[in-house]
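Posting for a labmate who doesn't have an account.
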Amino acid sequence: MDFRELLEQIINKFDDAYGIFLMGFDGIAVEKAIKADSPNLDMLAAEYTNLLRITVNALRDIDGGNMEEIMNATDNMIIVIKCITREYFLLMVLHRDANFGRARFELKKAHYLLEKELS
């Protein structure tokens, strides 16, 4: 599977998306698709990796189950994270007015495709 092609297919379904990353929990992007007018998403993705790692460890410590998804909204953007495996996740950044329900749906579909490839 061509990861970049999959990410571009997802991002091109949204006029109001900034970018999407396939990330490792080590903070390194496996692949990404970013629109030209986007803010510095590389830094955002790296910082969210730290946040996600802390959250996953906290859930593990309290037997809270495996992390599946996180969504954060600011006054400028929406960040949706979908965990794929224990080592990889998708991070999508959208404009504040975007349809994040549709983004969640697209990430869930991608999860099923990527889980097979990354397991």
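Reply:
Got it, the structure tokens are right above this. Residues 3-118 form a domain with the Beta-Lactamase fold (CATH 3.30.450.30).
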